[in-house]
Amino acid sequence: MIVQVLVEKTISLDDLAARAAATFANQFGRPARFVTAAPGRVNLIGEHTDYNGGFVLPMAIDRYTVVAADLAAKGKVARILSCTVDEQVEIPLRKGKADALPVWTSYIRGVLDAYDGEGIRPVPFDGVIDSTVPLGGGLSSSAALEVAMATLIEAMSGSQVTPVRKALLCQQAEHEGAGVPCGIMDQFSSVLCQAGHLMLLDCRNQQTKMVPLADPNYTVLIINSNVKHELTGGEYAERRQQCEAAAAALGVESLRDATTQTLEQHQSRMESILYRRARHVIGEIHRTTCAAEAIGTARWEEVGRLMFASHASLRDDYEVSCAELDILVDLAERLGSERGVIGSRMTGGGFGGCTVSLVQTSAAQEMAEAICGAYQKETGIEATAFSTPPAHGAKILLPQATARN
Ligand code: ADP
Ligand code: MG
Questions:
Q1: Domains in the chain, please, with CATH?
Q2: Is the distance from the beta carbon of residue 82 to the nearest atom of ligand 1 less than 6 Å?
Q3: What does the alpha-carbon distance between residue 153 and residue 121 come to, in Å, rounded to a whole number?
């Protein structure tokens, strides 16, 4: 069997923006006057900690959702074509009239409503969405869509909210528009991340600290298992509820306030499943701050150890991994440091999606080929891999900035 080289090539942000603008001109018969972009994200470490008031350490990836748009002279709708799903819709600008529209429009509707609530009224416009963020792969295409749309609303209206407020409005859009009770990581990453940096985000007080990751010898490699296990759908809510129950058993408001010592003292009085859930969260919060420090001081072995430990904890204690993700991480671990692997773990909510690995740049291509090849042999599934530098958060590409910051 010939194993393909699976390191994906993607188009640059400039090319993506040009493609969206060309589609807009073709579709609506006039040039786009606004183009905005927002990146997806990958979380290096700190999984299932956000809703426990803990730390996460994501970065924006060099994959974007862009919107090319122009105001419409009349009408009471936003006419929007998504090239990604190849569908055009008319979204009514007045609330409560979106019942028959496809699900993907609910994210946009959510953003329009959230800005409306902020006093920034939606105006009729035409738009084209295009994206290089894979949908539903755990790289947060949903936040990229929301944040690109929020950036567009701000560009078209000339009214801006603060970056933190913008991220919170997009989170609100995901909660209320799409009905997904997500934490704050995805939207904060897509808005606030800076090129060349990871973002240590304290999900309790929403403070951020940028951690440089700019050593050209190290690269972040993302491997998509290309599986998404549809379980009962209630796993996320169940984990959240178990965390709340564990916090109550430990007598703290959230697991952020608990320590390993408190947990050990209570072990005999706790249901084993709650103990294990809490052990993951408490350990993971600690690992995340340790990883940020280790990256800051270039202690790469320590970073790798923390990433592998994070994966083991998600697999065994939190039980959100799956066979395919475990295979990808095992393969990386077996290649080991001699073959340029620093660390690897599942990333995102779990049950499929991607792994994130920190690797030596010189070894990235060979490593991706080795892992994807072995994965295909073992599972029959083609994984896709790409490496990415830490990218910059959302921006307005058109109109081009003159004195804008
Ligand atoms: P993730 O955020 O990990 O990619 P989600 O399930 O949270 O996965 O969000 C994916 C959903 O977001 C898609 O199923 C779709 O409804 C919507 N979406 C994201 N990007 C686009 C896009 N470019 N065009 C249309 N819908 C999109
Ligand atoms: Mg999402």
A1: 11-212+391-402 (3.30.230.10), 218-388 (3.30.70.890)
A2: yes
A3: 9
Contact between 140 and 104 (Cβ < 8 Å): no
Contact 303, 342 (CB under 8 A): yes
pLDDT tens-place string over residues 302-325 = 999 999 999 999 999 999 999 999
Question: Which positions are annotated as active-site residues?
Answer: 186
Cβ–Cβ under 8 Å, residues 377 and 181: no
Determine which residue's CA is closest to atom 16 belonging to ligand 1.
104
Residue 336 CA to ligand 2 center (angstroms) comes to 31
pLDDT at residue 155, rounded to an integer: 98
**Ligand 1 pocket check: which of 145, 146, 222 to mutate, most ligand atoms within 8 Å of Cβ?**
145
pLDDT tens digits along 236-252: 889 999 999 999 999 99
Name the nearest CA neighbour of 154 among 399, 363, 349, 402.
399
244 closest CA partner among 281, 212, 218, 215: 281
Q: Is 179 in the pocket of ligand 1 (CB under 6 A)?
A: no
